[in-house]
Amino acid sequence: MAVLVWVLCCFPALALEMRIAVREGESQVVVGTSNTGMIRDQQGQQIAQVPQGRSLTVAAQGSQIKAANSVGQSFWVEPGPDGFVFIGDRWYRGRVLVTSNGSGVTAINYVDLEQYLYSVVGGEMPTSWPLEALKAQAVAARSYALHKRQQARNPHYDVGTTTAWQVYGGLQEETASTQAAVEGTRGQVLTYNGQVIEAVFHSSSGGHTENVEDIWSQPLPYLRGVQDFDAGAPVFEWTQTFSLDEFSRLMPSVGRIVSASPQRVTPRGRVREMRMEGDRGALVMTGNEVRSALNLRSTLFSIAIAGDTIQITGRGYGHGIGMSQWGAHNMASQGYTYQQILGHYYQGAQLAAIQAR
Fold first, then answer.
1. Cα Rg of the chain (Å, integer)
2. N or C: at which end does the chain have fewer Cβ atoms within 10 angstroms?
3. Does 301 reside within a domain?
């Protein structure tokens, strides 16, 4: 079993405040503070007070936004000491920058990286799972967040809140266990050749993870296929059944299906391309297109047609690259440490410490 080793040198001090787009391009956004807070303009000058537990609506006004009785390009909403900020329909740590994107209102939560992770770990993994699995998730999520932060293409924020980034739901996703996992790995990231890696993860691979280039494009030395530990997971094997009519509604370009045969698969059997033939013609679709249209758990599947029934059998949940969360759960349950879990799923990666300033 591979075990991660510590890199002797630490990363230089970084200002580790994440910028998360919680709402983007909306006509209006409701914000507030849990205790007496402040609204400040772009220059940091106080322009209004937010009473404890009260909220206000920030609305688009042409190419600007209006907060309280002020109009401008952006405003800060900051709670008092030990307070929280309300955005849309939930509470968050940190502060919020409400800004115009030219036609709507965008709310960006500025929050300390470690406090951000309190929520992400709870949003991505069941909080009742073994602590070593949660610690592995914390290190992977911290690495992924910093990698995205370094690669950010939007000048205004680093990441969003959905599975397209990492799930971030504010205070409601936090528990004592997620805080313990984050604090128990504070500042630890996965690196390769001195760079923070893109530590992607998924729920379950169905027995074996994938080489990244077999699913996406560019090969990466730390994202190699390995034997998974996810046997027994609820999503390890699954079946979905459709009637011909249901299938036709979901696949209107194919119609009533006659045959479905994979044209290209990965070495582990995930569908890259599939040829579908129906009464409306033939169509070659990518595995991801089929997965999306039929709401399948993964692209590791096969389709069987029997009379008026289409049965799809598959394994795993997610893209199958990097750390398997159910594998991490099972490894932790068997006594493996988070370092051993990460060392298994991110081959050749090392642990390094980052320092905040």
1. 23
2. C
3. yes
Q: Extract the tokens encoding 198.
A: 């893109």
Helix, strand, coil shares of the chain as percentages rounded to 5?
A: 25, 35, 40
For residue 265, what are the domain limits? 237-315
Quote the pTM value. Answer: 0.92
Of 261, 283, 287, which is closest to residue 273 (Cα–Cα)? 287
Residue 281 is assigned to a structural domain of this protein: yes
Q: Is residue 2 part of a domain?
A: no
Of 311, 215, 222, nearest to 270 by C-alpha is 215
Specify whether 187 is located in the same domain as 331. yes
Residue 263 maps to a domain:
yes
Q: Give the total number of structural domains in the chain.
A: 3
- The tens digit of pLDDT for each residue in 28-75 reads 999 999 999 999 988 889 988 998 988 899 999 888 899 888 899 999
Q: Per residue in 129-170, pLDDT tens?
A: 999 999 999 999 999 999 999 887 788 999 999 888 999 999
Q: Is 341 left (phi over 0), alpha (psi -120 to 50) or beta?
A: alpha
The answer to whether residues 84 and 135 belong to one domain is no
Q: What is the pLDDT of residue 280?
A: 87
CB-based contact 119:168 (threshold 8 Å): yes
